[in-house]
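User: I'm new to structure prediction. If I give you an amino acid sequence, what do you actually give back? Let's try with this one:
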Amino acid sequence: MIMVSKEAIEKFEEIRLNTKNPQKAMLRVTFGGASWIGPRLQLTLDELKNEDDVVVESQGIKVVYKTDIQEYLSGSIIDYSNSVRLNMGFLLKHPLPLLSVSKK
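Assistant: Good question. You get back a string of structure tokens that encode the predicted 3D arrangement of the chain. For your 104 residues, that looks like this:
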């Protein structure tokens, strides 16, 4: 299960209102390659769902991803940080610290 923090919900709603189709806006998690600490996952805004996508809804926000990264998302929290020192932007926090990822 993926959770979404209050801060991420507020920022997503703000961004979603500025898209062409606010009702279709989703957060997409994609595989951005591998590193010595594990997979690098990225967050982007998307309005299209592909046939092979998994879509889950958490706190009113649709999160979409491919089935091949599902194991890395279990227990994750999507958060948002305004801190320049701590990766400003959306963050994907995983229960295992080595798998934490971010996307500005």
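You can read the tokens as a compact description of the fold. Here is one thing that stands out. Residues 24 and 47 are 5 Å apart (CA to CA).
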